[in-house]
Design brief:
HTH_ParB/Spo0J, DNA binding, ParB_dimer_C, DNA-binding, 7 strands, Chromosome partitioning protein ParB, Conserved hypothetical protein from pyrococcus furiosus pfu- 392566-001, ParB domain
Length: about 300
């Protein structure tokens, strides 16, 4: 039986995570008595390279040093997952362990070799990092966006893949609307995902983010700060209507969370328009199906 067949069915085997994958691989190797591709093998550390587009970008050096000391004394217990690349291998999951193994001065590491394509590589990397809680909110959001933009995944499919709700995926993607400096604060841990979500509707999220950090505000206090900072359009009755009111913005957010899309409402006294933004043909198809009443 082909040991790669379960992984070629999109969003089934991968959704169960790395522990299931490794369990199947170990069982196959023990039954065959050999080390086929997919079995656990000892590979030279120097023959393995990290994946340039892996979701995780930030590695805590102190935590890496601690893991390196543990590996030095006990060895690398859990294998990494790699795929063939040129004359060597590319990491699919386990870059942190590979880095720590280098600090422990290991010459070889246990690895599972699988012939993953690009989309499977990214899927496995996301699942493994999320299960280990290794990704910050921005890294997770960027990984989701790449799967949507480059590989046509829907938010519903991503939710099933990582065992999260579609609204969780949608809320994370909204963080990417924030300025780069604010996203950097989230990536470094200076701001939480809750703080970042509260800053999305702000007129100047960068300056408010600094104020939140400097004053060590809670998420609720951040929400109050954003509301106080926004101009009170209701008090400017004689001025020309500009932008959406707080109620319209709340409706935009509500519709955006329901649809998993960016929603813009342009309201005027005599009417207005509702615009839905999409980033792929797959999302456009989803919009057409929902408007026509077809089941997705």
């Amino acid at each position: 039986m082909n040991d790669e067949a379960p992984l070629r069915k999109r969003h089934t085997g991968l959704g169960r995570g790395l522990s299931s994958l490794l369990g199947e691989v170990e069982q196959e190797a023990s039954v065959s008595g050999a080390s086929p591709r997919g079995g656990i093998q000892m590979l030279p550390v120097a023959a393995i390279a990290p994946h340039p587009d892996q979701p995780r970008r930030h590695f805590d050096e102190e935590a890496l040093a601690e893991l390196g000391e543990s590996i030095r004394s006990r060895g690398l217990i859990q294998p990494i997952v790699v795929r063939p690349l040129g004359d060597g291998y590319q990491i699919v999951a386990g870059e942190r362990r590979w880095r720590a193994a280098q600090k422990a001065r290991l010459h070889e590491v246990p690895a599972v070799v699988r012939d993953f394509d690009d989309v499977e590589t990214l899927e496995v990397a996301i699942v493994e990092n999320i299960q280990r809680q290794d990704l910050n909110a921005i890294e997770e959001a960027e990984a989701y966006k790449r799967l949507i933009d480059e590989f046509g995944h829907t938010q519903e499919a991503l939710g099933r893949l990582v065992h999260k709700s579609r609204s969780h995926v949608a809320n994370l993607l909204r963080l990417l609307d924030l300025p780069q400096k604010v996203r950097a604060y989230v990536a470094s841990g200076e701001l939480s995902m809750g703080h970042a979500r509260a800053l999305i509707p702000a007129d100047d999220p960068e300056s408010l983010a600094l104020e939140v950090i400097n004053r060590d505000l809670s998420v609720r206090e951040t929400e109050k700060l954003v509301r106080a900072d926004k101009p009170r359009k209701a008090r400017l009755g004689k001025m020309e209507f500009k932008g959406a009111s707080a109620d319209i913005e709340a409706l935009e957010r509500q519709l955006g969370d329901m649809l998993g899309l960016k929603v813009k409402i342009s309201h005027r006294p005599d009417g207005g328009t509702v615009a839905l933004g999409y980033s792929s043909l797959d999302q456009l198809d989803m919009i057409c199906q929902r408007l026509s009443g077809e089941k997705i």
